[in-house]
């Protein structure tokens, strides 16, 4: 069991060293710390007018940082799925 845990930590360290994962973490931090994005989220949450909410959601989803973050998130997810498939085959 200890060997499996050790290998898991090695895999985690390897993944964290990949440029894709580093960029994902960097962009995630920018999204999480962006006051503009935080304010958009607050406005979306408190708006009850459906048309206004849709407009705010469109603005949020088209924000360059959010677009980049979602794309990277998809790439990371696909990468991790490939790893899971490889692990499950053995």
Please describe what this structure looks like.
With 90 residues, this protein is an all-alpha fold. Helix content is 90%, strand content 0%. It contains 5 helices and no strands. The protein has helices at 2-17, 19-33, 35-46, 50-61, 64-89. It is elongated and about 55 Å long. 2% of the residues are buried.
Compose a concise summary of this entry.
This protein is mostly helical. It is built from 5 helices and no strands.
* N-to-C series of helices and strands: HHHHH
Helical segment count: 5
Largest sheet: none
Strand content is under 5%
What would you call the shape? elongated
Q: Let me know the number of strands.
A: 0
- Could you name the ranges where pLDDT drops below 50 across 5 or more consecutive residues? none
* Structural Rg: 18 Å
Tell me the helix content: over 70%
Straight-line distance between termini: 17 Å
Q: Give the mean pLDDT.
A: 94
Specify the structural class.
Answer: mainly alpha
Secondary structure: elements and pairs:
Elements: H1 2-17, H2 19-33, H3 35-46, H4 50-61, H5 64-89
Helix pairs in contact: 2-5, 3-4
Key attributes of the depicted protein:
elongated; mainly alpha; 90% helix; single chain; 90 residues
